[in-house]
Structure formats: C-alpha cells, structure tokens
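Homework help board

Subject: predicted structure for assignment chain

Our instructor gave us this sequence and asked us to write out the predicted structure in token form, then describe one feature. I got the tokens but I'm not sure how to describe them. Can anyone check?
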Amino acid sequence: MSAPRSRWRAAARTPVGACAGLLLLAVVVLAVIAPVLWGDRASVVDTSALQQGPSDAHVLGTDSLGRDILCRVLVATRLSLLLAVGATLLGVVLGLVLGTVPSVLPRRAGQFVVSVVNIAVAFPGLLLALFFAVIFGVGATGAVLAIGLAMAPAFARLTHTLSASVAGQDFVAAARTVGVGRTRLLTRHILPNIAEPLAVNATIGAGASLPAFAGLSFLGLGVQAPDYDWGRLLGEGLGRINLTPAPALAPMVAVVVTGLAFNLFGEAAAAALGIRTLSRRSAVPRPRPTPAPDTAARQLHSDGRPVLAVEDLRVAFPGPAGWTTPVRGVSFDVHPGEAVGVVGESGSGKSLTAMAASRLVEPPGQVTARRLEFTGVPLLETGERELRPLLGTSLAMVFQDPMSSFNPVMSVGRQLAEVAEHHQELSRSAAYARAVDRLRAVHVPAPERRARQYPHEFSGGMRQRAMIGMGLMGDPRLIIADEPTTALDVTVQRQVLRLLAGVRAGRATAVLLISHDITVVARNCDRVLVMYAGRIVEDLPAAGLFTAARHPYTRALLAAVPDLDTDRDRPLAVIPGRPPEPDRIPEGCAFAPRCPRADDHCRGEDPEPVTYATGHRIACWHPVGNGTGPVERTRRGSKA
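My token output:
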C-alpha cells in the first residue's frame, strides 16, 4: 500500500474524517442528481399554488410563482457549489502565484509584491468582495471574480509565510548546494512541504465562499434570474419570514451544512496530504551541464593550489542598531585531500563561515572577502548561473541534523537522483540507478529497497550516510561536514567518520569538519582552526593540538575535555563567563574578559595573527609558552 493511500485511509477512519467524507459526498451527489430528478418540478409555474405554506404536496411551501421551494433548494446545490469551488480555485491559484513569486523574482520586485499583498490583507475580505463586485458588475461571473480576488491576498500571505519557513530548512540549503534552480526548488522542495496547511486553508476558504456568494446574491449582485442559488432563494424567502420561515431557513441550512462539510474535509485533508506525488520533469530543454571533473582535472588542482581559499571573509547582517558582523576577517586554505577541523563554542561563527563559503548566505546578509575561491573560481564575482554546475558537482554539504537535511515528502532515492538529473543530464532511470549505487557505496543496507523509502524510515546514522551519498552523486572536491556526528551514538559516529575518511582517501577529496568535539577533530583532521567570536584565533597541526596549542582559549577548550585520568572528585574544568554576542564584541581581544593572561594591551587592541616557522598561526598578545619565534607576521583580517 502506498504511503498517500494509507494516510487517506487512516484519516477516513477518524470520526472527523468519516463525517467529512459522508457530508461532502452527500453534497456532491446531490449536486449531480438534483437537477436531473427535480429540475422540472423546480421550474414549473403553478398559479393555483402561489406562496403556499408547508403542506403534504409542498414540504417547504411554494414561492410567488407557485414553484416548489424544496426542489429549488435541492437543484440550487449544483450552481452554489460550482460557484464556490470556482471562486476558491481562482483565489488559491492567484494566491499561490503572489505568494511564491517573491522567491523567484529579483529582491526588489519580490519586496514590492509582498508589500502589495500586505496592504490588500489589511482590508476586510467582504469589503474587497463588494469592491470587486461593483467593478466587474452584477452576475455570477462578476461574483466569482470578486470573491476569488478577495480571497487571494490572505492565501498569498499564508503561502509566502510558509514558504519562507521551509526555505530555511537544511534540505533546501542542500538542494541549493547541488545547484537546483529557484523554480525547481520552489515546485519540488518547498510547495510539497506546505501542502497540508494550504489544503486546509483552501477547503476552509471554499466553505467561507458559500456565505459570501449567498450575501452577494442576496444583495442582487450575484446570480441573476432565471438562474438561482441559495443566496437568491434566501432573498426571496426573507420577505415572508414572519408568515412562514421555511423558505428562508432552508437555503440558510444548506449553506451552513455545506460549509461545515468543507471545513471538516479540510481537517481530514491535513492528515492525508503529508505525501505528494512528484511532478514530472519539465519538457523544456535544460542548459548543458558542466561535466564532472576527470582525473586529469583533479591532478591539475593537486599542484599545490588550494581547493578552497578564504581570505578576510566577513559576514554581516542588518539590525536595529546597525550592521552586525558575526564573522570577522576569517582566513584559511583547504588543499586537496586535506581534512581541516573547525572548533569553538556555539556562536563562534563556524557554521556561518561554511555557509558563506558555499554561497548559502541569503540577503539581507552580506558576504565580503578579499579572496573567496573554490577550485580557483572566485565565488563572489561569479554569477549564480555559472556557479550552479560547479557547486552542484564539486561541493558536498553534510548538515548537522540528518532529519532536516532531507526533503520529507520525497523518497531518498529520488532526492539523490535529482543531482544526476540536473547536472549530469542522465535520464530519470539512469539517475535513480546511480542513486542506488551511491547508497551502496556508503554502506546503506538493501539500497534498492531503501532508495524507495522516505527519510523518516531511516535511522539517524543511515540518514547521515545517505547525505554523504548525495554528495558523492557528483565528484566532490570538498565535503563540508557541519556537526555530522551530533546526536548519534558513538558506534554510528565512528561509522560516519570512517566513511568520510574513506571518501577522502579514495578520491583525494578535501574535508572541512565542523564540530564541538575537539577530540573528534584532533583524531580525524590534519589541521585545526580554533574560532572565537567570529575570528580564527589559532591554526595549528592536529598532531600537536594537545601538546603545542598556545592560545589561552585553545588551552581552555582542551582542559574542559575530560579523559580517563580526570579526577572525579574535583569539579570539571570550565571556561569562566560566556562568549560575547555578535553585536557586542568588546574592544581589543574578544577573549580578554575571560582570559587569565589578559592585560590592558589585550583589552585595547585586537591582536593580529602571527605565523611561526612550523605553520602554526596564533592571534594572541600573550600566547602560552615561548614557541620557535615568528618568521612572518601577516594581517589576515582587520580589527574588530
């Protein structure tokens, strides 16, 4: 049984789902058969039975022309339902367009659309409907346009809000990393994940459009004679409500019951629409992708040039008090086959540095650098269209949370295959076969069966291995692993780290490993970058981390790591105080308020990095130990 069908059946077994299904089915069946069974009787004029009350012959009485009111209410179901659904479809489609267009348009044009939608939402929906009804004129067509346009702003705002919330997820960032375009990203990764609230809002909107139509027809702006809907019947019966309430109450009850059916169906749809069928590939020809680099090309980049070169990298965000710079003058290189670890407390700028190097920092964030190159290509000067094939095939991202790294409404195999379809111009079946092969390469058991499963059916370690497999769909020069072993048990951690080491050894792939666990970094990396308050305060070989670390902050991090020789009768070592907020970086050295070696010089001037003969780089006025003496003093990042 497929996942969508099973969820539909599960929803139908609930009391709400059963009631919704029965009510809506009854309304739809009535709309189909009522004009056939009672259409003639509803239109027959009987001058001998004008405005009669309820009787055996006419259960709800007759109107001013002697026509049976019950038959007219039943026959009006079709037109009332079609008009409500039509207006809802118009509002939903227009709302989807207005809500998603800001994600595709340039930034200023997108902000203009959002501003227009926000202004429209400020007006009451009924007022907008009356306004548009006057513009389009009386009649059913004008009423459909009026109510549909009145519904669109609220639906557009909901779509935009939900899209923005999903756009910040790791699986969207992963799709952007592999080079998925904005339109494809929207249709295949964002919209399917917001289907549930949109479906609920659409069905509730259909229920709300029924009384709206009834109101317009009641006022004479909707359906015109000789056609009739529930609103028109309500208007005709209201004049006799003091004599006989049945002609007015019957269409009113019909509106309430049908609206309730739509609302309950919306609740059931929220539980049933968790999985959506993937859209077919577009028939529009795609630009020819850049082929994966071959061995000769890889050898070309093994001549001493770094895979990733970062110099004076800064990331800034606007705030109420001005610009905040959480990454301040970061500089480092990553060479082919090298594993570089990045450690530091939370908020030190580790992940943000990796995101900036991957071109994942979106406006209003600003990324600047004296040099930011990946495989020799300047990332800040090259357009997104030109970078997409390079980053999609040569850069792999492994995020911290393996659950949020995958799109929950796409099977794992299809998500991996998307890389090959988009960049290697493989057919759907060939790309899927390659995805199965990559899952096998990262030691996922039964890869053919697992490829058909969804992310929630994978364990945490298996999801992380599948994420690495996604990166191997191309020919990655660099794997950025952001906390890849967080929340995994030690056995699975070891498996994931061994897998990364195997990929690195077999393909000469560079690895940038970000972690809070300084021991993991020391054992699995060649070099270690220690970050604090948005800067690299020490850069040293991993082999000498426990013996040659000289920065007080690095020494404090190492002292806080317990081992088998730690005295359990003494309190664990901690670093006093807490890191500064990005918008409150103190003058001088940012670590000075927590450093036992700090003096007035430290508090007044930020130290520049000093490079020693061993390649050891430190940014500290009073490093621990004597060292070997500096051979080069370079300013690789300006002062805070």
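Reply (TA_rk): Your tokens look well-formed. For the description, you could write something like this. The longest strand covers residues 322-334. That's the kind of observation they're looking for.
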